User: Which sequence fits this backbone?
């Protein structure tokens, strides 16, 4: 039974769409000490959070994995991310071990602008299914010269990168659509998944997804009442192009589990309230991620 007792409700939601389960591209599993520090930031409404943020799904790693299984998730990610040098490849090693012991877990990786970055990404690139880069927390530019060769390798490999570059919940030096637009101009074949729909720069990041073949958006926390207080409400005039993008394979389910301030079902209900149709929900919650991860 899950922490908030919604196993049956979540399963009924996706079963009603005729899906075999859910694929969540944006969940977090990290080494316990790292997760504890991340959750402490949420608990204290730290400077990168900006407001109270009660975490719903506390517990051990095993308990959190079992919660996702109880909801019927067939694939999910372990998006760890580096915020200082000599951290990224240690996280990559941990994530490889996590995926080895959790069959549903995607093999995830991260990288950081440092002298060794090209070597460790090249060494692990073939085995990684999804990268995570957090521009806000890492406080680095995606245009850092140390990363240019890495972006080229990742683009050539076609490996998706979940990229938190929007200025929510709190702007930072390098957040916003401008650096991402320049990055894509240099590497137009990059497969990016823009976290949180790019909040609050929804229109600008949607335009990038419309322009570049391999740019996607994830739904993480977007459209929920809680997130509207920090990312702003999603503009109604963007719903029609959002529907088109979803049906074209470019919108993916994300949640931010376990560090969410509400039950998991709320993200699904927020998507349903958009009234973009069952075909759109099926695409977002299963079909699009399935195709992307299949390469």
Assistant:
């Amino acid at each position: 039974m899950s922490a908030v007792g919604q196993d049956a409700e979540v399963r009924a939601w996706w079963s009603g769409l005729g899906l075999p389960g859910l694929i969540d591209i944006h969940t977090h599993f990290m080494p316990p000490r790292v997760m504890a520090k991340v959750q402490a930031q949420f608990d204290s409404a730290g400077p990168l959070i900006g407001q109270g943020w009660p975490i719903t799904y506390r517990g051990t790693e095993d308990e959190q994995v079992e919660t996702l299984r109880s909801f019927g998730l067939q694939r999910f990610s372990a998006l760890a991310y580096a915020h200082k040098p000599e951290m990224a490849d240690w996280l990559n090693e941990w994530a490889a071990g996590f995926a080895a012991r959790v069959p549903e877990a995607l093999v995830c990786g991260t990288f950081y602008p440092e002298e060794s970055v090209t070597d460790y990404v090249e060494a692990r690139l073939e085995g990684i299914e999804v990268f995570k880069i957090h521009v806000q927390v890492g406080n680095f530019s995606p245009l850092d010269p140390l990363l240019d060769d890495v972006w080229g390798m990742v683009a050539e490999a076609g490996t998706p990168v979940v990229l938190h570059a929007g200025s929510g919940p709190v702007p930072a030096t390098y957040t916003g659509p401008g650096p991402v637009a320049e990055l894509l101009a240099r590497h137009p074949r990059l497969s990016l998944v823009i976290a949180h729909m790019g909040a609050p720069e929804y229109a600008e990041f949607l335009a990038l997804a419309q322009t570049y073949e391999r740019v996607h958006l994830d739904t993480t926390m977007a459209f929920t009442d809680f997130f509207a207080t920090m990312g702003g409400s999603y503009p109604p005039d963007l719903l029609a192009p959002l529907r088109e993008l979803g049906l074209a394979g470019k919108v993916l389910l994300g949640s931010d589990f376990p560090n969410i301030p509400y039950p998991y079902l709320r993200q699904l209900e927020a998507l349903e309230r958009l009234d973009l149709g069952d075909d759109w929900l099926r695409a977002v919650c299963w079909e699009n991620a399935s195709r992307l991860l299949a390469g």
